[in-house]
Amino acid sequence: MLSQVPRSRMYVAATVAAVVLVSVAVALIVRSSSGPATAGSDSMVAAAPSPTATPSQIESSSSSDSEDDDAGESSNGNRALGLKAVATTSPGVTARLARIDSVQATASLPGEIGGPALAITVKVKNQTGKKLDLALGVVNAYYGPERTPAVSVASDGEVPFPASVADGESAKAVYVFQIPEEARPVRVELDLGNGADVVVFKGRPQR
Question: What are the phi and psi torsion angles at 184 (to 5°)?
Answer without folding.
Answer: -150, 145
